[in-house]
Amino acid sequence: MAAIGRRARHAARAIGRSETAAKNQALLAIAAELERRSGHLGAENRKDLDAGAQRGLEAALLERLDLTPARIGTMAESLRQVAALPDPIGGISDMTYRPSGIQVGRMRVPLGVIGIIYESRPNVTADAAALCIKSGNACILRGGSEALNSNKAIADCIHAGLEQAGLPADTVQLIGTADRAAVGALLQLSDCIDVIVPRGGRGLIERIAAESRIPVIKHLDGICHIYIDADADTDQAVRIAVNAKTHRYGVCNAMETLLVAESIAAELLPRLAAAYREHGVELRACAKTRDWIPEALIATEADWDTEYLAPILAIRIVAGLDEAIDHIARHGSGHTDAIITRDFARARRFLREVDSSSVMVNASTRFADGFEYGLGAEIGISTDKLHARGPVGLEGLTTQKFIVLGDGHVRG
Amino acid sequence: MAAIGRRARHAARAIGRSETAAKNQALLAIAAELERRSGHLGAENRKDLDAGAQRGLEAALLERLDLTPARIGTMAESLRQVAALPDPIGGISDMTYRPSGIQVGRMRVPLGVIGIIYESRPNVTADAAALCIKSGNACILRGGSEALNSNKAIADCIHAGLEQAGLPADTVQLIGTADRAAVGALLQLSDCIDVIVPRGGRGLIERIAAESRIPVIKHLDGICHIYIDADADTDQAVRIAVNAKTHRYGVCNAMETLLVAESIAAELLPRLAAAYREHGVELRACAKTRDWIPEALIATEADWDTEYLAPILAIRIVAGLDEAIDHIARHGSGHTDAIITRDFARARRFLREVDSSSVMVNASTRFADGFEYGLGAEIGISTDKLHARGPVGLEGLTTQKFIVLGDGHVRG
After folding, report:
1. Which pLDDT tens digits describe chain B residue by residue (412 residues)?
2. Residue B113 near residue A355 (C-beta atoms within 8 A)
3. pTM of the model
4. Out of B13, B244, B338, whose CB is closest to A329?
């Protein structure tokens, strides 16, 4: 593992100073290789699927593992999209002259070496490699053992594409062993790896964060709230509250708790209840809410702290904005929260005072996403506060150094 | 300790939404209190000095501990300077409309609660509190046990000032016990503290980083290099190389290793040797350098990895830019490195390829400093890559959240 780390550190210097054109050429070459070797990728993937079926992997996992021709096409398309994004590296900003005469500013540079640990989807191998190459970073990839053959075949395409562009193959290294101890060893390489990005369930992320000697960009719970204010446009409120819950259930930016201002409850709750009934959403509500939606189940304290990722919604009536902000501060996970209101001052207060990675006014929490925000692609969504917060795109894989220009200036 | 954490988290919400005027009023009121209570501060400081002298504290430590009337004046002046800085909080940037119709941008917000662990200088109590207040953060301060009475007296002034401005006194909490276990307990409060900033020697910082469950902004070694290129202006080169080494010896941005292009060595090294001799700087040099400076000691491998913080300089002749960049990559600490050259292309390559928090052209490494960079004040210099890199001012104590504005937009 130490040798992998040293090779990554070495490759990082080369990819870090590579020209944009070479990096883009590599991304396009990888896309072409993936398509050219589509049959081979399918055959390698078949080995993983068969082994998984034999081991009794559940159907949902097998489905995620499946590398259909359409999914190979999507991977190639993603690579081309990353190639089309602007190169963040080398961007200089904030150059100013100081009273001493020196000129000071910042230059955007790669982080160095990124370790990415992920679960079953093999497309992450190509997607993560693409973001690292474009942002001038080397990476060490550790995919799920159940996808090992698929990941190796994809890594071969990546190496071929890098070499065609004259870039070192070690820019992207895949740990090609199913040995679980490899992750533990990886997390100790603080001299060789600058940041770890885990992609997977909460269990994986918490285990990695606890064990790692390297900073980790974490994506923990998405307990997202919508607060419908007394001055909400009720049509907007219903539309957004239904979209945020029912557009997709298993995603981190789905609404899990709806807070409703008491004075608008009579008008709003029966309409919402009808809409949720139509979508088969189970409602768990506070006592006051059940005055208007008697069929709702009684919410327990635990409901306010639960990320359902399912057609279940917790509903609570609050006195107004202050109680809503308090509830979110106490029970939220700092992911994404929205207010629905026509009131300017309350919208402004909500934006400022709610301490989440995305705070919204009159929009569905489902928009919290790298593509929707225009980042072009995302390597994950960070619920941390330091470094990257919210959807993490290319910029989240970079940092800024200070640059100072002078004409022989010395400090007096 | 848990109660201190909870109070800090609570105070963070209040200070985070406070208006700029209230925060500035608090800073000015604290400055006035420090001056008003100057006699009392001196008396409390006397207790620490007497106890330190009895315990046999070395003279340098006692000197740092001494809170003279002039130093109290400087503390008050620093507070007024922080009050005069622009408020970073609430700043909105990069607002754009997306194809979906939503408007997306970022808002600068406080980190939340900052834990600051520092050694003997009591002025850090006021300086760190000022930066946290201005950036809308609550903080928990843990100063050196040898300065406990001084720090408590300063904390009393801070609380008085906060209360005069209508801000919660718990915005700044000082751990008022000399018990060493308190630091360990503090570093476990990951629910209540968002980041730890240690200020002190390498030993303190490494111990805290190893033990902390909370992200740490680290300031480790400053092994700073200057590379004098073949095309350097020799007058500039001598002026900068002398300034960077001799302006102050015990500081992290002092040059520790000088790299000289082979073709300019004959012209440059005798002049440099004479200048360093005048300043009493001991030279430790590679064999080639000793052809020109025979009186220099022989450098060992360990010299290239040493932060002397003393009138000692390592000198090495390199073939040119590539070897210089390689040397810095292998032996540097990622703090501050400079090139002296008139050559445009080599200046540009050095700026891009040297991976340090400050990279300079034709300027002394001594400029790597928050005040010199126009940050107004600094809480430290980060040698980390994530989040803050280089001098950390108010902005390093903040983060950005995404904000999304819509008119009832839902995701399709």
Report:
1. 899 999 999 999 999 999 999 999 999 999 999 999 999 999 999 999 999 999 999 998 899 999 999 999 999 999 999 999 999 999 999 999 999 999 999 999 999 999 999 987 899 999 999 999 999 999 999 999 999 999 999 999 999 999 999 999 999 999 988 788 889 999 999 899 999 999 888 888 989 988 988 989 988 889 999 999 999 999 999 999 999 999 999 999 999 999 999 999 999 999 999 999 999 999 999 999 999 999 999 999 999 999 999 999 999 999 999 999 999 999 999 999 999 999 999 999 999 999 999 999 999 999 999 989 998 878 888 988 898 899 999 999 999 999 999 999 999 9
2. no
3. 0.92
4. B13
Return d(Cα A352, Cα A331) in angstroms, integer: 18
List of chain A residues whose C-beta atoms are within 8 Å of the C-beta of residue B334 = none
Interface residue A96 vs chain B (CB under 8 A): yes
User: Which residues, given as ranges, of chain A have pLDDT below 50?
Assistant: none
Nearest CA among B47, B297, B270 for reference residue B151: B47
Q: How far apart are CA A342 and CA A362, in angstroms?
A: 9
Residue A186 CA to residue A208 CA, distance in Å, equals: 10
In this structure, the strands spanning A103-110 and A398-409 are antiparallel
Q: Under a CB-based contact definition with an 8 Å cutoff, are residues A8 and A170 in contact?
A: yes
Q: Which region, left, alpha or beta, applies to residue A334 given φ > 0 means left and ψ of -120 to 50 means alpha?
A: left
- Answer yes or no: are the C-beta atoms of A379 and A131 closer than 8 Å: yes
Report which DSSP code applies to B276: H
Q: Which of B217, B229, B239, B355 has the most A C-beta neighbours within 10 Å, making it the best mutation to test the interface with A?
A: B355
Residue of A nearest to B92 (CA): A352
Distance from CA of B289 to the nearest CA of A (A): 24
DSSP sequence for B115-183: EEEE-S-THHHHHHHHHHHHTT-EEEEE--GGGHHHHHHHHHHHHHHHHHTT--GGGEEE-----THHH
Largest Cα–Cα separation, chain B = 78
Contacts of A50 (CB under 8 A, 6+ apart): none
Check residue B218 and give its pLDDT. 87
* Separation between Cα atoms, residue B303 and residue B287, nearest integer Å: 13
DSSP code of residue B397: G
The one-letter amino acid at A307 = E
3-state class of A317 per DSSP? strand
Nearest to A184 by CA among A115, A113, A122: A115
Pairing of β B312-318 and β B255-261 = parallel
> Which pair of structure tokens corresponds to residue A287?
């006592």
Residue B58 has a CB neighbour count (10 Å cut-off) of 8
Report the candidate in B122, B129, B127 with the shortest Cα–Cα distance to residue B147: B122
Q: Are strands B113-118 and A224-228 parallel, antiparallel or unpaired?
A: unpaired
By the 8 A CB rule, do B139 and B220 touch?
no
* Token output for B372: 């010199």
* DSSP category for residue B250: S
Determine the Cα–Cα distance for residues A113 and A136; give it in Å rounded to an integer.
9
Would you state the structure tokens that stand for residue A382, as one six-digit string?
Answer: 């960070």
A104 contacts B377 by C-beta, under 8 angstroms:
no
Report the amino acid identity of residue A227: Y
Nearest to A357 among B374, B401, B411 (CB): B401
Torsion sign (Cα): B147, B23, B93, A252: positive
